[in-house]
Amino acid sequence: CMNYMFPASYAWGNFSVLAVGIWAIVQRDSLDAIMMFLTGLLLTVLTDIIHISVFYPPKSNYLSDVKRFSIGMAIFSLLLKPVSCYLVYRMYRERGGE
Question: Is 36 left (phi over 0), alpha (psi -120 to 50) or beta?
Fold first, then answer.
Protein backbone atom coordinates (compact mmCIF):
# COMPACT_ATOMS: atom_id res chain seq x y z
CA CYS A 1 0.00 0.00 0.00
CA MET A 2 2.86 2.41 0.65
CA ASN A 3 3.94 2.13 -2.97
CA TYR A 4 0.96 4.19 -4.07
CA MET A 5 1.61 7.33 -2.05
CA PHE A 6 5.00 7.53 -0.39
CA PRO A 7 8.55 7.09 -1.67
CA ALA A 8 10.77 4.18 -0.71
CA SER A 9 12.45 6.27 2.00
CA TYR A 10 9.26 6.10 4.06
CA ALA A 11 9.29 2.32 4.08
CA TRP A 12 13.06 2.05 4.58
CA GLY A 13 12.98 4.42 7.54
CA ASN A 14 10.13 2.68 9.32
CA PHE A 15 11.34 -0.86 8.62
CA SER A 16 14.87 -0.06 9.77
CA VAL A 17 13.49 1.30 13.05
CA LEU A 18 11.43 -1.88 13.34
CA ALA A 19 14.61 -3.94 12.91
CA VAL A 20 16.39 -1.92 15.62
CA GLY A 21 13.33 -2.42 17.83
CA ILE A 22 13.54 -6.18 17.43
CA TRP A 23 17.25 -5.98 18.29
CA ALA A 24 16.41 -3.91 21.40
CA ILE A 25 13.85 -6.46 22.55
CA VAL A 26 16.14 -9.43 21.98
CA GLN A 27 19.15 -7.91 23.78
CA ARG A 28 17.65 -7.16 27.15
CA ASP A 29 20.87 -5.98 28.78
CA SER A 30 21.85 -3.42 26.13
CA LEU A 31 21.12 0.23 26.83
CA ASP A 32 22.57 1.19 23.47
CA ALA A 33 20.00 -0.83 21.56
CA ILE A 34 17.05 0.67 23.41
CA MET A 35 18.49 4.17 23.07
CA MET A 36 18.96 3.69 19.32
CA PHE A 37 15.38 2.46 19.08
CA LEU A 38 14.06 5.48 20.96
CA THR A 39 16.12 7.85 18.82
CA GLY A 40 14.93 6.12 15.66
CA LEU A 41 11.30 6.38 16.75
CA LEU A 42 11.67 10.09 17.46
CA LEU A 43 13.38 10.62 14.12
CA THR A 44 10.67 8.76 12.22
CA VAL A 45 8.02 10.96 13.84
CA LEU A 46 9.69 13.94 12.19
CA THR A 47 10.22 12.21 8.84
CA ASP A 48 6.65 10.86 8.80
CA ILE A 49 5.30 14.37 9.28
CA ILE A 50 7.48 15.57 6.40
CA HIS A 51 6.46 12.67 4.13
CA ILE A 52 2.75 13.09 4.82
CA SER A 53 2.83 16.86 4.35
CA VAL A 54 4.89 16.74 1.14
CA PHE A 55 3.22 13.78 -0.57
CA TYR A 56 -0.39 14.41 0.45
CA PRO A 57 -2.30 15.19 -2.76
CA PRO A 58 -3.67 18.73 -3.06
CA LYS A 59 -7.13 17.59 -4.20
CA SER A 60 -8.43 15.04 -1.71
CA ASN A 61 -11.62 14.25 -3.62
CA TYR A 62 -9.63 12.45 -6.36
CA LEU A 63 -8.14 9.83 -4.05
CA SER A 64 -8.71 6.18 -4.80
CA ASP A 65 -9.56 3.79 -2.00
CA VAL A 66 -6.03 2.39 -1.88
CA LYS A 67 -4.46 5.85 -1.60
CA ARG A 68 -6.94 6.88 1.07
CA PHE A 69 -6.14 3.69 3.01
CA SER A 70 -2.39 4.32 2.67
CA ILE A 71 -2.71 7.85 4.00
CA GLY A 72 -4.99 6.70 6.81
CA MET A 73 -2.58 4.03 7.96
CA ALA A 74 0.36 6.44 7.79
CA ILE A 75 -1.52 8.95 9.93
CA PHE A 76 -2.59 6.20 12.34
CA SER A 77 1.02 5.04 12.64
CA LEU A 78 2.11 8.62 13.28
CA LEU A 79 -0.51 9.00 16.03
CA LEU A 80 0.67 5.80 17.76
CA LYS A 81 4.37 6.68 17.71
CA PRO A 82 4.29 9.00 20.78
CA VAL A 83 2.72 6.16 22.77
CA SER A 84 5.45 3.84 21.52
CA CYS A 85 8.10 6.41 22.46
CA TYR A 86 6.71 6.62 25.98
CA LEU A 87 6.69 2.82 26.38
CA VAL A 88 10.22 2.51 25.00
CA TYR A 89 11.37 5.26 27.37
CA ARG A 90 9.88 3.29 30.29
CA MET A 91 11.80 0.22 29.10
CA TYR A 92 14.94 2.35 28.98
CA ARG A 93 14.37 3.47 32.58
CA GLU A 94 13.73 -0.13 33.71
CA ARG A 95 17.02 -1.24 32.18
CA GLY A 96 18.98 1.28 34.19
CA GLY A 97 18.89 4.39 32.06
CA GLU A 98 19.16 7.74 33.75
Answer: alpha
